[in-house]
């Protein structure tokens, strides 16, 4: 049976998401497990503001 985190990761991949920026912590463990199986790149900075700037920069380069 697929966990909620695995289902979320596969749903994101189906919608064209390639990179996931997150705030590290135990609250994301199930999602971490699903990211690898869905082929998503997981980027986890040391601070939440870093995640925002990194995500914003990557999206700005795409658009």
Structure notes:
The protein has 63 residues and is mostly helical. It has a domain at 19-62. 57% of the residues lie in helices and 10% in strands. It contains three helices and two strands. The protein has helices at residues 4-14, 29-38, 48-62; strands at residues 19-21, 41-43. The protein has a two-stranded parallel ribbon. Helix 2 (29-38) links the parallel strand 1 and strand 2 (41-43). Helix 1 (4-14) crosses helix 2. The relative contact order is 0.21.
Number of helices: 3
Q: What's the alpha carbon Rg, rounded to whole Å?
A: 12 Å
Measured by DSSP, the beta-strand proportion falls in 5-15%
Strand-pairing-aware structural class: mainly alpha
Q: Main sheet?
A: 2 strands, parallel
Uncertain regions: pLDDT < 50 for 5+ in a row?
none
**Overall pLDDT score:** 84
Topology order in helix (H) and strand (E) letters: HEHEH
GO biological process, one term: isoleucine biosynthetic process
Domain Thiamine pyrophosphate enzyme N-terminal TPP-binding: 2-57
Pfam families: TPP_enzyme_N (PF02776)
InterPro entries: THDP-binding (IPR029061), Thiamin_PyroP_enz_TPP-bd_dom (IPR012001), TPP_enz (IPR045229)
